[in-house]
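Reviewer 2 asked us to include a model.

Predict the structure of this chain.
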Amino acid sequence: MKENSSQEAYALFMNDCRAKAFDKTHRRTINYNMMRYDEAVVRGKAIFGNLELARKRAALKKHTVLEHLEDHLKNFERQFTSRGGKVIWATDAAEARKAVLQIFEQHFVKKVVKSKSMITEETGLTEFLEKNGIECIETDLGEYIVQISGDKPYHIVTPAMHLSAGDVAKIFNQHFGLSEESTPEDITAFVRKKLREKFAEADAGITGANFLVSGNGAVAITENEGNALFSMAAPKIHIVLTGIEKLIPGMEDLDLFWPLLATHGTGQEITAYNSLVFGPKKPGETDGPEQMYVILIDNGRSRLLAATPQRRTLACIRCGACLNACPVYRNIGGHAYGTVYSGPIGAIISPHLTGKTDEYKHLSYASSLCGKCTEVCPAGIDLHHQLLYNRHLFIRNGLSTRTERFGIKVYKKAMGNRKWLDLASPGIKNIAAKILFSQAWGKKRSLPKVVKSFNKRYTEK
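Predicted model (structure tokens):
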């Protein structure tokens, strides 16, 4: 049963990969956007006197937190609730959705504004709220474009990266009657005006969290458009959904993590808006929500924390740098992965977070193992090694196919016996390679031909 689901998931992935990799329009759009990112990142990283030292410091900070995660979570809860905030613990996505709905039903919430948050994608919150009669509007421009077009985020940081300016203009023409000649500035002005009305009408706001400061119970939120600030300050209720791994020890650590996130995420020296929220507004304060909730979500993170050494990937700060560096992602894009988190980091964590290792094991093979992802990770995660650790885990857990097991058995037998290797002629070896490897090699490439064995060449020399 598991083998069938695994093969179906792999077949779907390969079909999507072929469709995207050979779609010239898609390639042109993603290459242009990646080129702009690459140029910006070079400028952004120039602010660091010693980038390698900064990455090592970040890795050590996150490692220390993960080793004592329970203590940091308890301290965050204690500090946050002492200022009037409320903390809710959610074991999985269903519990998180249920907690949000209960809050909204209790306060008769019908209209919600939401800033960009990957964990709301992970939990399927927007669709859930809409099914329960609650309007939930994305306020990040990229997320708003994806939402109105019925699409899914393409990238952790830039959800509409796969769309050109012309594509976006067509979407707004279809939905709002704007001219197909509308410029990005025209569309931005239109969305700004429309969303201002939504902010004014909203009963509640939802955000994610880039970091949770355990030392003083602060929620750190980073953005470029100011929509998260509106989502927090305008409505009477503010709900933060966040994974339990988002903790950093103290406020002083933000001078390390905020620049690392900005430079690796978008190439900026620092993101436009960096907010610290300590709880609901106090008597006499004019801005901020009357009630604030932080929902701490596990949803497979404890399972990943228990996996050694894959637990290191919980140090990820969701900058998207590994996606932008990965030659596989740069060819097939984000949608082909079929998961909320794509690219190298998604390939590693998705099997663990979902618990569906059989369905997502193929993602850890969608890599050239070039090491570029490890090279660019600001949190110092050894991503290409983690892909190998996953592969080893899948084999150890018996998730390889019968064909794979048989092929490796034959290969091992042949490679361990000189006579067996010499027995097969080049022609037989070429036929065997065609039977065993042609599908994996792909239709667009020709298999290399065996002319003479190494032993034959060595003997002749």
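The domain at 47-299 is CATH 3.40.50.10420 (Rossmann fold). The chain has three domains: 2-41+302-396, 47-299, 402-460. We have added this to the supplementary material.
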